[in-house]
Design brief:
- About 15% of the residues lie in helices and about 30% in strands.
- It has about 110 residues and is α+β, with helices and mostly antiparallel strands.
- It has a single domain, classed as 2-Layer Sandwich (NE0471 N-terminal domain-like).
- The chain has a 3-stranded antiparallel β-sheet. It has a 3-stranded antiparallel β-sheet with strand order 4-5-6.
- The radius of gyration is 14 Å and the shape is globular.
- The C terminus is likely disordered.
- Bound molecules: zinc ion (ZN).
- The site of zinc ion has 7 residues, from loops.
């Protein structure tokens, strides 16, 4: 079953909470999400290398707006002005799974 967020919320200023349509609840540290931004400005499209300097991202960074993109992703606008990151539901679900059940493989 394709996972889609059923609801989005925040638990304090630095935790994003996604409740998935299968009932699982995932919590994300917002700065970690910001640092995992997959856009071409933050990750080299060809080499996959990180271009984002973590020191350039304020400790207090937080999402100011979250929009759904089609049926597959979220676009997050950050308080540091960055807004080009598209986080697919797959990658978000993946980040959550890795934290909760590291052995899972498909
Ligand atoms: Zn980015």
């Amino acid at each position: 079953m394709a996972r889609v967020p059923k609801s989005l919320g925040q638990d304090g200023p630095d935790t994003l909470v996604i409740t998935w349509n299968d009932g699982e609840v995932c919590r994300y540290n917002v700065r970690v999400l910001r640092l995992s931004c997959p856009c071409a400005e933050c990750v080299d499209e060809w080499t996959g290398e990180d271009r984002l300097d973590p020191n350039s991202v304020p400790q207090t960074v937080r999402p100011v707006r979250i929009d759904q993109v089609g049926r597959y992703a979220l676009n997050i606008v950050w308080s540091d002005g960055h807004s080009t990151g598209i986080y697919t539901f797959d990658s978000l679900a993946d980040m959550c799974q890795r934290r909760q059940s590291p052995e899972t493989s498909s």
